[in-house]
Amino acid sequence: MKIRGTSTPPRAVNRQTNEALEGESEFIIKIHDINDNEPRFTRDPYIAHVPEMSDIGTSVIQVTAIDADDATYGNSAKVVYSILQGQPYFSVDPETGLIKTALSGMDREVKEKYLVVIQAKDMAGQMGGLSGTATVSITLADVNDNPPRFTKTLYEFRVPESRELGSSVGAIRAMDADIGQNAEMDYRIIGSDGPGMFDIISNRSTQEGVIVLRKPLDFEKKRQYSLRVQVENVHINPRSYKMGPFRDEASVRITVEDVDEPPAFERPSYVMEVREDADRNVIIGTVSASDPDDKRSLVRYTIDRRTDMDRLFDIHAGNGSVYVLRDLDREENAWHNISVIASEFGNRVPVYIRVLDVNDNAPTFATNYEAFVCENAKANQRIQTVSATDPDEPIGGHRFIFSLAPEAAGKANFSVRDNKDNTAWILTRRSSYSSLQRSVYHVPVVISDGELPALSSTNTLTIRVCTCDREGNMKLCNPEALTAKAGLSTGALVAILLCVMILLMIVVLFAALRRQRKKEPLIISKEDVRDNVVSYNDEGGGEEDTQAFDIGTLRNPEAIEDSKQRRDIVPETFYPQVRRPVLPPSRDNNGDVRVFITQKLQDNDSDPTAPPYDSLATYAYEGNGSVAESLSSLESVTTEGDQDYNYLSEWGPRFKKLADMYGGDDSDS
């Protein structure tokens, strides 16, 4: 019997006949698992953290291993956990794989990292079971369990008394074994024999306490300071309170060093007063300075002349007394600000000198008044309101008094009424003024300032008589009044007249220059020469044509005069012409050349058409007595008829023109 692995249910058949011995049957086959897979952890390695100083049994991390065997059949998939490495610090739960602390008081500052090896074994941990391992890295997290501690109990610093406020005096630092925010510290001063002199600032980046200066130091007053400084953690773990206070204290000693200081004035500034009529060398005040150093050096006073350019004041070098050096004028400058220097090192103090007013200026008109009165004015009619000004400044203010000058009171045409408010009215004393009889009136007005001693001045008010309409509006005034109304002063008129005179002088000078005639030159300009050159296209007559061009055409035709003498030779009218002697022949048989040159020189000297300047004349003279006789056509024959030019026609087309002119019969020529 055999069982076939087909899709039909198995059955028993005869091998020989292949016939079924029985009906079809159904079989169930079950495969039993064996322990052939070891447990495997879900991660490897594991990373975990636990705070330092944790209690025993504090959970750290849970590890998990998985076995692929059948958990329902036997113990092949039953896993048990155990710790292979990491005792006695940690333990693991055999069933859950939870790792816990097994030792109390684990200190991060002693040991920070731990490596734990966990084993997972199947078969419930029995002999013959398969196992797998995993590594767990456990780090102790820091807690604030260490208080800060100063490295020294006493810190000493030295600082000069000239140290600026806010600058650093020194830095102190406490040590803390913790890290991060658990090591942050705060510094503060808990005691000092100089309250408010110093302060301490906590530097978070360096965890230092920086001592800074808050008040000026003075070696002469106090030479040493003692401070008590405390440091404390910022973040404190409540569980660490039982370990004691998380703070520490130290002492700081600061020694002040002496610096040679400039003299110090008793006051930051001085204000002095002096009357403007004070005499010279009068003392107006005193400044005082002293040397703050122990040696108490003498102080010398001077005035910074850059603040007193006019040298109005001076100071006694020994006692600091300021006195007047020149006359003062309050109206010109009421305040003087000078600087007094106290040496050793040029320390200075401002001195403000106020010049007190003295009644030394008389009041005057506030402006230049120009008044007019109508011809039809009535008596007691107001024609002008005047006021006054005074550069003085009395304490109670100005009080001006106006009145008519006594010399004009008897025959006055106008009156002055004081309004008691520093103004006055000018009134007419009669009616009917005539500009034909008198066009201008001058009214003297006396103005007094009412001070003690009183000063007064006489001011003249000019009143012009004008024609007005019924409403009193001016219609016509005399010429002087009109000029004044137009705003043309005497100075303006003078300036206008001066400008007119200068303009006339320029015009006259220009006309004179235009009338001035220049001497006409022999040749007026280059254009004259160009315009008087005769241009023609006649062909020359050869070497015998010596009269083809006259150089006289180059001269200015207007300047040619027959009777005008040459400038380069002596005129024959004053001196007889001297014939140059004929030189005798020389030994070199060139006498005929000398005679020829002498003759040409005399011809040029007597030629009136020669140019009025030195010139070079070149001649081609062949001489006499040549064996070959002359080769030139000049003077070879006496007449043109003796010369035969027929040979020119044989020279080709280039000489055809000459052959036509000179060759042929006499009738042709």
UniProtKB/TrEMBL annotation:
<dbReference type="InterPro" id="IPR015919">
    <property type="entry name" value="Cadherin-like_sf"/>
</dbReference>
<dbReference type="GO" id="GO:0044331">
    <property type="term" value="P:cell-cell adhesion mediated by cadherin"/>
</dbReference>
<dbReference type="GO" id="GO:0005912">
    <property type="term" value="C:adherens junction"/>
</dbReference>
<comment type="function">
    <text>Cadherins are calcium-dependent cell adhesion proteins.</text>
</comment>
<dbReference type="GO" id="GO:0000902">
    <property type="term" value="P:cell morphogenesis"/>
</dbReference>
<dbReference type="InterPro" id="IPR039808">
    <property type="entry name" value="Cadherin"/>
</dbReference>
<dbReference type="InterPro" id="IPR002126">
    <property type="entry name" value="Cadherin-like_dom"/>
</dbReference>
<keyword id="KW-0325">Glycoprotein</keyword>
<dbReference type="GO" id="GO:0045296">
    <property type="term" value="F:cadherin binding"/>
</dbReference>
<keyword id="KW-0677">Repeat</keyword>
<dbReference type="GO" id="GO:0007156">
    <property type="term" value="P:homophilic cell adhesion via plasma membrane adhesion molecules"/>
</dbReference>
<dbReference type="GO" id="GO:0016339">
    <property type="term" value="P:calcium-dependent cell-cell adhesion via plasma membrane cell adhesion molecules"/>
</dbReference>
<keyword id="KW-0472">Membrane</keyword>
<dbReference type="GO" id="GO:0016342">
    <property type="term" value="C:catenin complex"/>
</dbReference>
<dbReference type="Pfam" id="PF01049">
    <property type="entry name" value="CADH_Y-type_LIR"/>
</dbReference>
<keyword id="KW-1133">Transmembrane helix</keyword>
<feature type="domain" description="Cadherin">
    <location>
        <begin position="266"/>
        <end position="365"/>
    </location>
</feature>
<dbReference type="InterPro" id="IPR027397">
    <property type="entry name" value="Catenin-bd_sf"/>
</dbReference>
<feature type="domain" description="Cadherin">
    <location>
        <begin position="365"/>
        <end position="481"/>
    </location>
</feature>
<dbReference type="GO" id="GO:0002009">
    <property type="term" value="P:morphogenesis of an epithelium"/>
</dbReference>
<dbReference type="InterPro" id="IPR020894">
    <property type="entry name" value="Cadherin_CS"/>
</dbReference>
<keyword id="KW-0130">Cell adhesion</keyword>
<feature type="domain" description="Cadherin">
    <location>
        <begin position="42"/>
        <end position="150"/>
    </location>
</feature>
<dbReference type="InterPro" id="IPR000233">
    <property type="entry name" value="Cadherin_Y-type_LIR"/>
</dbReference>
<dbReference type="GO" id="GO:0034332">
    <property type="term" value="P:adherens junction organization"/>
</dbReference>
<keyword id="KW-0106">Calcium</keyword>
<dbReference type="GO" id="GO:0005509">
    <property type="term" value="F:calcium ion binding"/>
</dbReference>
<feature type="domain" description="Cadherin">
    <location>
        <begin position="151"/>
        <end position="265"/>
    </location>
</feature>
<keyword id="KW-0812">Transmembrane</keyword>
<keyword id="KW-1003">Cell membrane</keyword>
<protein>
    <submittedName>
        <fullName>Cadherin 6</fullName>
    </submittedName>
</protein>
<dbReference type="GO" id="GO:0008013">
    <property type="term" value="F:beta-catenin binding"/>
</dbReference>
<feature type="transmembrane region" description="Helical">
    <location>
        <begin position="492"/>
        <end position="513"/>
    </location>
</feature>
<keyword id="KW-0732">Signal</keyword>
<dbReference type="GO" id="GO:0016477">
    <property type="term" value="P:cell migration"/>
</dbReference>
<dbReference type="GO" id="GO:0099560">
    <property type="term" value="P:synaptic membrane adhesion"/>
</dbReference>
<dbReference type="GO" id="GO:0007043">
    <property type="term" value="P:cell-cell junction assembly"/>
</dbReference>
<dbReference type="Pfam" id="PF00028">
    <property type="entry name" value="Cadherin"/>
</dbReference>
<keyword id="KW-0479">Metal-binding</keyword>
